[in-house]
Amino acid sequence: MNIGDIRKRAQGVKAGTVSPLELDYARGILRAHRGDINSALYVVGLCAAADDALLIEPYLRGPARDVHGETALKHWSATWVS
Prior knowledge:
Layout: H1 3-11, H2 20-32, H3 37-47, H4 53-56, H5 62-80
Helix pairs in contact: 1-3, 2-3, 3-5
């Protein structure tokens, strides 16, 4: 799977939807803390359920925050914080 392509569909930049299997792929990247984390944060932040907050939270704290915190907060809060 290509997480960059999945991200484009999640953002609406490219036609198509994100399948449940592709969403799980993005979740796996976040769980493993390896791969294109930035794109995975977009996908999970824009397409996932509220309980996926546990996958996003580690990127808002600690050393990961310096690299991925802004992306995590921006896309998660735009989707789930009202």
